[in-house]
Design brief:
With 68 residues, the protein is mostly loops. The chain has one helix at 11-18; strands at residues 29-30, 37-38, 49-50, 53-54. It has 1 helix and 4 strands. The strands form 2 sheets. It has a two-stranded antiparallel sheet. The longest helix has 8 residues, at 11-18.
């Protein structure tokens, strides 16, 4: 004999149970070097700093200059 629920749960009760099942947005920090928003414990993608030290050498983007 399989175990079956004795009574049907309403949609409101189901919704109350599932209200706490959600994705949590991770907190952001400001980079200590360039003040860009960064995930905690990760290298900054803009400047390459982590924990106050240069870890990655980020190449500067080339800007297109129009010739007149």
């Amino acid at each position: 004999m399989p175990h079956e629920p004795k009574k049907r749960h309403s949609r409101a009760r189901q919704g109350k149970r599932r209200a706490n099942i959600k994705l949590k947005i991770p907190g952001f920090l400001a980079c200590s070097n360039c003040q860009a928003t960064v995930y905690p414990h990760t290298v900054c993608k803009k400047c390459g700093f982590y924990n106050g030290k240069q870890v990655l050498a980020i190449k500067a983007k080339k800007t297109k200059e129009k010739t007149a």
